[in-house]
Structures
1.
Amino acid sequence: MKKVLTTPISAEDLAGLRVGDVVYLTGQLVTCRDVAHRRLIELGRELPVNLQGGAIFHAGPIVREKADGSYEMVSIGPTTSMRMEKFERQFIEQTGVKLIIGKGGMGEETAAGCKENKAVHAVFPGGCAVVAATQVEAIEGAEWKDLGMPETLWINRVKLFGPLIISIDTEGNNLFEINKKTFNERKSAVLERISQQVKFIK
């Protein structure tokens, strides 16, 4: 059975999730990346959207404005989450966001923020931006449009958005760091095996 998170998300909704689990999101999903994080944390500007119990997507979508003035999602793929690492711990604390979605892993600060505030980070598969757009039922609003299309806070209504792989859970466990340690432990034996096969090359 699919595990579906529905906004607003509570700490209880996330309590049983562990790194590597796959979930889907239904409800509100707000795109929020570099400049929006900087405005909140460095410039102290209040976000124009309530993220308490909410979900954000580190993404720079392509959006089409229709003749009636409404918007249509064309493509919405994840951007590299690590770019937000220096802001995310404070961002989680200040906004009450519960689900952060992006590409690749995040670091110690985000892991600490997730543990302190009972939030999670999840990875959306890269290369699926057009498919992801089909999971956006409607764009319900757009804030900070002065930042340009990629950095605008696009407020989306989504249904079964995913798959999302939990990479940091509410205990601060970090899938990418766990995997890095495992791979490094295995590396020496693999390199030794390879060097035996190619040692004739001078």
2.
Amino acid sequence: MPQHVIQRGNNRQQCFQDFADKATYMMLLLRYLKKYDVDVHAWVFMSNHTHLLVTPHTENALSGFMKSVGQAYAQSFNHKYGRSGSLWEGRFKSCLVDTESYFLQCQRYIELNPVKAGMVEYAGDFQWSSYRCHAYGMHSPLHTPHSSYLEFQPDSDRRYESYRAFVDSPMPGGLEDLIRYTAIAGKALGSEKFQEEIAAQYG
């Protein structure tokens, strides 16, 4: 089941100082996704946090994946900048995502982070996100497109055009806050029926 994952720098400190830092983080994601059998559907690397939209294929895959990536990156970062101590703000935050109603909304939310933060005016101008994969068909070894995206429009060229229009369209009122809240609080992001099913299954 897809999960929205947020990993923040400790005390909101910067965890990426330059191009090489983000490239290192991406390399570590690639290194460990096969080991833990995790599909990465969407991502964005901000200056002090990351968002991922992933599907782990075994019960403990996500925790092992994020722990390995987080520890390896922190060691690299501390060595590079001559620092010590914790880089990340404790354990990552995550929530289950309802594919029927909320997957693409969550994917759009992730890819619009740089625009919301005023870093770029257009999502396609930010290199460190999955937007170009979904909006223009750019290949990335990190990217596994989710069926919700592929079924958005069967023809690939029309899908890219439709996805760009979807991202440019206004997000329903309150949805942005809901997506942020559910991830931080560890709640299920989905319809009432979906939440009831998750509650029955996981408590």
3.
Amino acid sequence: MAVVRDLRVLLRLRDFRRLLAVRLLSQSADGVYQVALATYVVFSPERETSPAAIASAMAVLLLPYSVIGPFAGVLLDRWQRRQVLLHGNSLRAVFASGTALLIVGGVPDWLFYASALSVTAVNRFVLAGLSAALPHVVDSKRRLVMANAVSPTAGTLAATAGGGLAFLVRLVGWDSDAVTVLLGAALYLCAALASLRMRRGLLGPDPALVQPGVRAALASTVHGMIAGVRHLSDRRPAARALAAMTLMRFCYGALTVMVLMLCRYAWSDTDSRGLALLGLALAVSGAGFLTAAVVTPWAVERLRGFDRLGPDVRLRWVVVCAGIAAVLEPALGLPFLPGPMLVAAFILGLTSQGSKIATDTVVQATVDDAFRGRIFSLYDVLFNIAFVGAAGVAALMLPPDGRSPLLVATVAVLYGIVAVATGQPRST
């Protein structure tokens, strides 16, 4: 099979393997850290969890990066990306260790959130840097679809595995969020050390484009972002893909809050059972991510020739994914039972990750390297806004036990809108 052949070629590329190793370690640490935060905020026995509380936590942790994100992009187009991966993961190891100390100390919530905020702030640089660097370790544009199937999906699976490891640490008896956070800090440190295996200038950007001083880079941030948005407006496939992915992220965020509440109240009578169900949902969704990595390159090739599905073959796969989600999400979600909802988690994991692979590839293939850092940072900002906005909407619509037919129906309609709008022929 061509897919297997391309995958073998990619894994023979030394620098691709090394960048992939950094991603796996970094995102597994993300999974550990995020689950530790979720269990501390949602499943602590002394806390009365509500959709509004979850939405507030997400807003505190994510919304500030609607401002920081553009700065990250402009700096990524000036700083050597290998150094961003090295110093970014090192800082996160330090900040995560600080979070563990604050949990042990029982500090006020605002101080805990400030510490968590520092970890996720650096995360904006690391994730955008990983995506912007990928074309520098792949030997041809033709294999970029496969690289985007393998690398971000493997990272997502690593985050899922990290989350599973965090659940396991708690369930086997280390019932301490602080211990789990320290495990995440150790993995961040390993990611920083792994980045040293790549030479300093390997991941770009082109040295001719790098401004030597941080002050000069910050001074040009506004101008640089305007230029990036203008560049994106001239790359219509990338703009369409980003718009579709933002709406799909909104849908995924709303359903995530719903599943959290179902696990906490409707499906369990103990915190440990709720945690086990949430861990199972994450594992099933991770299986969907893995399936997307295998299916997406094959599906993109098979969709060539189906012009009615959209002007760009990679956008056609986004149309198919959104259409599948629009049909199956209400069918599986409305019973509000664990079994059908777990099947829905698999389907939505597959369709969400399949669409993300296609979107990443469209952006990388159509956006010039000098602009990739800021476009991927904009991508990241849109993800944050969509997720937090979804949590806010879910907080207004969800009852205390998490069962809301209206929310399930609304999400299905949004998936349908994405499928129809993305599949429309581009106007000339």
